[in-house]
Design goal:
By secondary structure, the chain is α/β, with parallel strands linked by helices. About 30% of the residues are buried. About 40% of the residues lie in helices and about 20% in strands. The chain is built from ten helices and six strands, in the order E-H-H-H-H-H-E-E-E-H-H-E-E-H-H-H. It has a single domain (about 15-280), classed as Alpha-Beta Complex (Lambda Exonuclease, Chain A), CATH 3.90.320.10. Strands 1, 2, 3, 4, 5 and 6 form a six-stranded mixed sheet that branches. The two termini are about 20 Å apart.
Length: about 280
């Protein structure tokens, strides 16, 4: 642990995101070190380092290509970029995306696209923010699309409980009126779709309704209130995840990162994933 006292006071107002809330739910101490202390990562997340970095960059590149496609860049140009990239996965993911336009992503047709759309709304003394891969709107109905490049497909029941699903749907109904000619989306007009680049025919779709919307928003408000009142942030009791946490050396839970291949697959199958995309959201 560092010699200096660890801060416990949350800056106000604080911009909560799905990533910060998920960090808190996974490990209170990780939230404290990352967002209150704002410590740079003292340990490598996973090993080998180069493999981990490659996967992060591939995911970034794929998200960028889909965004450019939605903004009108010619398919031929993007296909050429994918084919000439140094990524072993990007050409396959891009081909899967193009094929899925007529199948699992057929709902994209005839919609108004809002790619990389950011939304924000007050929640208690703080704010809740989100940046969406895509919000597609048609006739007053909105579909949230999120692109996933993980090597394992998580279970739908697990994904539905993740902070991302709860935050993205509930926030859109409360902060997305400007995407619908000034009229707020009713919960029943919103659904969320996770599309997996490695599993293009196995999308996960989550509908919404008033009961879920109220439950999610009230639950998020309660969670944020709990975080704001905390004066101590205990370590996670699930030590098997610590091998993938960059703050483990601060918690005396090891300095050597676990391997990123087999161990990652096993963790994903059991319902826990290393959120590589989350890394890009944190800026110091």
């Amino acid at each position: 642990m560092p010699d200096k006292p660890i801060k416990t006071d949350l800056p106000a107002p604080f911009g909560f995101s799905q990533s910060s809330l998920q960090d808190y739910e996974d490990c209170n101490r990780r939230f404290q070190l990352r967002y209150i202390e704002q410590l740079r990562w003292p340990a490598v997340e996973t090993a080998p380092v180069l493999e981990n970095e490659r996967r992060q960059l591939e995911g970034q590149q794929f998200h960028r290509m889909v965004q450019q496609y939605l903004l009108g860049l010619p398919v031929e140009t993007l296909t050429h970029m994918a084919a000439n990239s140094k990524s072993p996965n990007l050409p396959r993911w891009w081909t899967n995306f193009l094929d899925a336009r007529e199948d699992s992503l057929a709902g994209l047709k005839d919609h108004v696209f809002f790619p990389e759309q950011a939304l924000s709304a007050p929640l208690g003394a703080h704010r809740l923010t989100a940046k969406y891969d895509l919000i597609a709107v048609k006739d007053g109905f909105a579909t949230i699309y999120d692109w996933k490049t993980s090597h394992k497909r998580p279970k739908d029941a697990w994904m539905e409980q993740r902070c991302q699903t709860r935050v993205y749907r509930s926030l859109l109904t409360r902060a997305g009126a400007h995407l619908n000619h000034g009229k707020p989306f009713e919960p029943g007009q919103v659904k969320m779709v996770y599309w997996y680049a490695e599993f293009p025919g196995e999308t996960a779709e989550f509908a919404y309704d008033n009961a879920r919307s109220n439950r999610d928003w009230d639950g998020l408000a309660t969670l944020i209130k709990e975080i704001s009142a905390r004066q101590s942030f205990p370590l996670s009791e699930d030590e098997k995840t610590c091998g993938f946490c960059p703050y483990r050396s601060y918690c005396d839970r090891g300095k050597i990162a676990l391997e990123a291949s087999d161990e990652l697959d096993e963790m994903a199958e059991s319902g826990w994933e290393v959120n590589l995309e989350q890394i890009q959201e944190i800026e110091f």
